[in-house]
Amino acid sequence: MKITIDTTMCSGHARCAAAAPEVFRLDDDGYALPFDGEVAEGLEEAARDGQRACPERAITVE
Asked: Name one GO molecular function term (predicted).
């Protein structure tokens, strides 16, 4: 499973990290950082929770 974050769409609400702190990282201003690599086994549903929490729909989980 792969996560893509469109950082140009992120508005810094930090809802992805609130929903799935074990998956999403934020910069010092609360914006989602680009995701490198694959989602760790067992965190797939958390990744989807973070995707659903994003009001800008800046996160794609494939």
From this structure: 3 iron, 4 sulfur cluster binding
- pLDDT number for residue 35: 87
Q: Reduce the DSSP state of residue 53 to 3 states and report it.
A: helix
**Which stretches of the chain drop beneath a pLDDT of 50?**
none
Read off the tokens for 22. 């074990």
CA distances in angstroms from 24 to 19, 29, listed in the order given: 9, 14
CATH of 3-61, one of 3.20.20.60, 3.40.50.12280, 3.30.70.20, 3.40.50.1360: 3.30.70.20
Which of these, 6, 8, 14, 16, lies nearest to 52 by C-alpha position?
A: 16
